[in-house]
Amino acid sequence: QVQLVESGGGLVQPGGSLRLSCAASGFTFSTHWMYWVRQTPEKGLEWVSGINGGGGSTYYRDSVKGRFTISRDNTKNALYLQMNDLKSDDTGVYYCAADEYYRHDEFDYWGQGTQVTVSS
Q: 86 phi and psi, to 5 degrees?
């Protein structure tokens, strides 16, 4: 069955960095768009970033551009999110998601999430 397992979350001070990982299995990873989506208490569910199957096209929400980098390794069925210069507004549960198409919601597959807390 399909599994998406996130890791790498934690507590970090403002201005710090974290790298999230997502291990995928149970579907053809290289043919799917992959996404990071976050759930925050104040704003609800927010689309953060997406990357196409080959890794050559990446997209970001405006508030994370220049700070976050999405990448993937199709040889390892792995998705990553490098987060730098973290801010308190980045606090939330980060989910890995997958879909055959480019979209901002209603993805085919979701992970269980990993908590990111940015606080001094």
A: -65, 145
Name, in order, each residue with C-beta under 8 angstroms of 24's C-beta and a sequence gap of 6 or more.
3, 4, 34, 77, 78, 79, 96, 98
Contact 12, 114 (CB under 8 A): no
Look-up: residue for tokens 């710090």?
16
The 10s digit of each residue's pLDDT in 45-104 is 999 999 999 999 999 999 999 999 999 999 999 999 999 999 999 999 999 999 999 999
* Cβ atoms of 64 and 75 closer than 8 Å: no
CB 109 within 8 A of CB 2: yes
Beta bridge partners of 53: none
